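[Solved] Which block belongs to which protein?

Original post:
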Amino acid sequence: MHSQLDQLTKSTGRTKSFLAIEALEAYISQQAWQIAEVKAGIEEADRGEFATDKEMSAIFAKYAN
């Protein structure tokens, strides 16, 4: 990872600190989004909001290939 970071700093002209902060911001943003989506899904499940078998079959058929 160290050599990859060195190469990236050379390729982009950015500092290691800049790239590290950029990577952390992206990671934290992704994790926050994922946690929020999981919580929303749990809340929907707690309310009994589920897709029907027919709806799921249609989704599987659409993306099967």
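(Second protein starts here: sequence line, then its structure tokens.)
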Amino acid sequence: MMEQSRQEHHRMELIYSHPSGVDELYCPTCGRRILIQWPPDYKKTILEVGDEYATHSGGKGGLEISAPQIAQQPEQSAQDTDRLDQWEKLLDQMDFKDHWSGDT
């Protein structure tokens, strides 16, 4: 697996807004082309793959797509742990394991 810090980053450009509301974005660096339907019915369709190992970002009107960011969770405080313990006890009482396995 390639390290995130060594990945190339490419910026995609909006090349066409279709009448349906779907936008076509193009990466001038590697030739990647995608169609984006923005939220609430988000959908991405890849037309040309381009460089699959590079991260890509792009967008319009304040909305932008980019690679997910991975961050370490901060340490939980004792107060957070107490609150989570209460929820865990409640969920254990509800017996979700049988519900999701279909053994009701």
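Accepted answer:
You had them paired correctly. Confirming on the second one: The radius of gyration is 21 Å.
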